[in-house]
Specification:
With 51 residues, the chain is mainly α. It has 3 helices and no strands. The chain has one domain. It is elongated, with a radius of gyration of 21 Å. The relative contact order is 0.07. Pfam families: FixS.
């Protein structure tokens, strides 16, 4: 029972830390262009064709 007194606040703190990191990444624009990054692999670069 004494372990729960310690583990519950730690779990809540880590959850809030993860939520804060998620909202920070939203504000920084990490999720703006999801399709562009996925399709970039199909585009050939000019340097790759000459090498």
């Amino acid at each position: 029972m004494n372990g729960l007194i310690l583990l519950i606040p730690i779990a809540l703190g880590l959850g809030l830390l993860g939520l804060a990191a998620f909202f920070w990444s939203l504000r920084q624009g990490q999720f703006e262009d999801l399709d562009g990054a996925a399709l970039r692999i199909f585009v050939e670069d000019e340097e790759d064709r000459t090498a």
